[in-house]
Amino acid sequence: MDNILRSRQLSKHFFQKKALEKVDINIEKGKIYGILGPNGGGKSTLLKLAAGLLKPSSGEIWIDEKKPGVYTKSIVSYLPESNYFYKWMRIRDALAFFKDFYRDFDIEKARENLVFMKLDEMEKISSLSKGMLGRLKLTLALSRNAHLFLLDEPLNGIDPVSREKIIASILNAFNKKSTIVICSHLIYYIEKLLDYIFFLSEGQIILQGNAEELRNKKTMSIDQLYQEVFQS
Amino acid sequence: MEFSNNLPIYLQIINQIKQDVVSGKLKAGQKMPSVRELAENLMVNPNTIQRAYLELERENITFTKRGTGTYLTLNEKIIHSLRKEISGKIIQDFIEGMNKLGFSDDKIIRILQEHL
Amino acid sequence: MMSLLKYEIYRRWKWLVIRYAALITLGVIFYNRTVVAPMQYEIAAASMGKFILVSIVVFVIIIVEGINMLKEDLFEQSGYLTFTIPRSGKSILFSKISLLFLQLTFWTIICFQFGKMFFSKLPLKEISQITSQIDFPFFPSILFIMTAFFNFVLMVHFSITLTKTLLYNKKYSGIISVGIFFLLAYLIEKFYYGPFASQIQHVYIEINNTSDMSMLSAGYTSVFMNVILSVIFFSATAYLLENKINI
Questions:
Q1: Is A161 part of the contact surface with chain B (CB cutoff 8 Å)?
Q2: Is residue B23 classed as helix, strand or coil in its secondary structure?
Q3: Which of A165, A166, A171 to mutate to probe the B interface, most B CBs <10 Å?
Q4: pLDDT, position C201
Q5: What pLDDT, on the 0 to 100 scale, is given for residue A124?
Q6: For residues B106 and B111, what is the distance between their CA atoms, to the nearest angstrom?
Q7: At residue C203, does pLDDT exceed 60?
Q8: Is pLDDT larger for residue A157 or for residue C219?
């Protein structure tokens, strides 16, 4: 099968909230996808389900035709929005950690990327600024030769200089054997990276399509399309 | 490079490359940047670049040497016809634009002579 | 698994060093007091008593930390790392339990050594008079207590994990885990240990007909029962960690 991620009637409910409602999604290998939508719309939930951090309330999700578990975690590189590092770590500890647990981690590439991102290995993670933290998280996530990259809001709170570096890193990590899924509500900067997009709101896919085709059909950028769709 | 929304990005990239060929910015036989390189430079999806390159190859503006990369054609005739095609389009647009403003063809010739 | 254990140690290495350094240092200090004042049995007894107090405090710290090892990863940000790496719930739990086990073993060895040292400073004749009258299964009792505490931690782990399975937020998790824990403790007491109460004996000691002490004693059967319980709770918790929890 050419799908790296697939879901069927996938739903996730929390106590009061319905985060995802019967979502069917197909993500093919070798492309860059965007899952776009307002905060609280279900994007993070979908990514977490794929990463194995959440379990479906109903419906199913498959990574490379397997249910989320130890194997899928080894081929999925998940970048959460929050700061997930152990508080005691320095950057080089984080490098060692990734090397210890992920066989596909390329530590040399990570070191090069750290230089590119202007990060020093000896720095304590707790003393990093938000921008530096974002660059570090992304460096680690993208220095793996994973089959599926799940990036949750990689550009949030990032200054313009870091933003360009992050976009360059994402493009650099891309290859035909891997797939990148980016969740963001900052569409303007990433839309030209995307092959295919999903608009996710209130737990449902309200629009999807090839990015170029949508742009030409509606003669507007995805960013403009987003504003139009979500203004109402 | 700024992209507009009226035309597919891959076409805009093709046009830009064609312009660069005609203007001499890109020389005959010159090596094209790899898909990945160009994608990173323009901050555009690599598949889009791939599509543009495929089209350029189809039009024989570029050719691929296995293992080494993609190169601009050495064929002067192709470059010449490209020059004609692009400049022809600019002139056509210009004439149409001037006509819309009310300039007749004779007036166009005269005003051009004034300007040049 | 070794990597997981490595990072469990890395995460708290400073605390580990401090606590055992303190235990050993204080042990040496208290023991010194008995050395400089030989034959003064009140001092010897008092020093031993102080050491026992310190060792109990360290023991409690080890147990509490043992519980926090899992609680942190379930309810704090560090859970993102722990539960996205390609390791099974079993491995993750096993690494935490292993560290607890290593610590308990280390603690026991230290206390035992100092115990022997202190004991040698006490009036041996009087003590052997008492100990010869007691039919006290020493080793199984120690083992019973250790396995009981080990099991205690696993029961708490299970309670917390079950709570996390049922509730996503942190809000009432404390109360609910405690509730689950007590429910389990009650059920175990009633249906598990209950029928075998005869195995867990009380030993009465008479000393000069003036006083008697009763101590909890146990045979190897009860140790075995503790181990079975631990295995059950371990498996159940590992299953929940792998298949049911939402971070």
A1: no
A2: helix
A3: A171
A4: 53
A5: 92
A6: 9
A7: no
A8: A157
Range of the domain at B100: 9-115
Predicted confidence at residue C207, as pLDDT, reads 47
**Is some CB atom of chain B closer than 8 A to the CB atom of A32?**
yes
Identity of the residue numbered C157:
H
DSSP for A84-109, please give it. -S-TT-BHHHHHHHHHHH-TTB-HHH
What domain range includes position C83?
1-122
Which of C88, C122, C156 corresponds to the end of one domain? C122
pLDDT of residue C212: 47
Cα A194 to its chain centre, rounded Å, is: 12
3-state secondary structure of A141: helix
| Domain span holding position A40 | 3-231
CA dist., res. C16 & res. C151, Å (int) = 22
What is the predicted pLDDT for the residue at C211? 47
Type of residue found at B4? S
Q: Does A172 touch chain B (CB under 8 A)?
A: yes
Q: What is chain A's mean pLDDT, rounded?
A: 91
| E strand spans, chain A | 3-13, 18-28, 32-36, 58-63, 76-79, 148-152, 179-184, 196-201, 204-210
Report the domain count for chain A. 1
Residue C197 tokens, joined: 């109460």
Residue type, A112: E
Q: Are C222 and C196 in contact (CB under 8 A)?
A: yes
Distance CA B54, CA A32 (A): 19
More confident residue, A122 or C168: A122
B21 φ/ψ angles, rounded to the nearest 5 degrees: -65, -50
Residues 11-70 of B with CB under 8 A from A: 36, 39-40, 42-48
CATH number at residue A108: 3.40.50.300
C55/A69 Cα distance (integer angstroms): 42
The structural domain count of chain B equals 1
What stretches of A2-44 adopt beta strand conformation (E)? 3-13, 18-28, 32-36
pLDDT in tens, B67-116: 888 898 888 888 888 888 888 888 899 989 988 988 888 888 888 888 88
Q: Which residues of C touch A (CB under 8 A)?
A: 3, 6-7, 10-11, 77-78, 80-81, 83-88, 167-169, 242-247
Angstrom distance (rounded) from CA A61 to CA A54: 11
Tell me the two tokens of residue C66: 């043992």
Could you write out the DSSP letters of every residue in C206-219?
A: EETTTEEEEEE---
Chain segment A6-62, per-residue pLDDT in tens: 999 999 998 878 999 999 999 999 999 999 998 888 999 999 999 999 999 999 999
